[in-house]
Every structure is written in C-alpha cells, then in structure tokens.
Amino acid sequence: QVHLVESGGGVVQAGDSLRLSCTASGRTFNDDFIGWFRQGPGKEREFVASIRWSGGTSYSDSVKGRFTISTISARNIVFLQMNNLKPEDTASYYCALRRPPAAGWDYWGQGTQVTVSS
User: In the list 19, 30, 39, 40, which could disulfide-bond 45, CB 3.0-4.6 Å?
Assistant: First the structure.
C-alpha cells in the first residue's frame, strides 16, 4: 500500500508562484510514476504533470513552461513548482501513483486547493 499526502495549496494572485508537495509513504519502487492532476470547478479531472522516480517527466500543454515537477526520491517527495499562475489554474490538485505494468493510477492523495485570483 502507498499513502500520498499533498500540501502547499493556497490563495494567490495571478502571476504569483506556489510549490505543491506530495509525500509518499509505504513501499515505492524506482519504476513508479507520480503524477499531478487537477479538477477545477465544473470541470473534469485533468492530467498536469508526471515524473518517474528513476527519471523522466511529462507535462500537459496548458502548464508546459510554467510548471516544473521534480523529486527528492530518497525522501519520496515530489514537488510541483507552479509559476506565473493564472485564474484558470484554480483547482483542487491531486497527486497519484502509477505502478507499471498497471496502466491506471491506483493510489491518490486527498488533494490540496489552489485558488488564483485575477
């Protein structure tokens, strides 16, 4: 079992920055992927970014160039640095873990709220 806890959300103004953290406890493996997802008001959940403990990142087009995902794998922590935030980034942000060969994200955190005012 893996337990994920997000932190770092808050209320900011457009153009500001925030850094979200996702701490994983339990047994993790180098081939695991940690992903960030978000769900805005009235919207479906969408992929934001992902990273593999052993390396490799992926971003959605909507955040590429503004958000950076990174990890301190020895501490099982994944960060999402969010710069130049926009009101449309307002959402609940969730981290999740995918363990190959599984195709789905099987473990989820409880989420942290990010609100960006214009």
Answer: 39
Measured in whole angstroms, the distance separating CA 81 from the mean position of its chain's CA atoms is 9
Biggest CA–CA distance in the chain, Å, is 42
Q: Checking DSSP bridges between strand 33-39 and strand 91-98, what pairing results, if any? A: antiparallel
For tokens 């060969």, name the residue.
Answer: 101
* pLDDT tens over the chain, length 118 residues: 899 999 999 999 999 999 999 999 998 888 899 999 999 999 999 999 999 988 899 999 999 999 999 998 777 899 999 999 999 999 999 999 999 988 899 999 999 999 999 9
87 upstream amide cis, omega within 30 of 0: no
Q: Is the dihedral of CA 44, 41, 118, 83 positive or negative?
A: negative
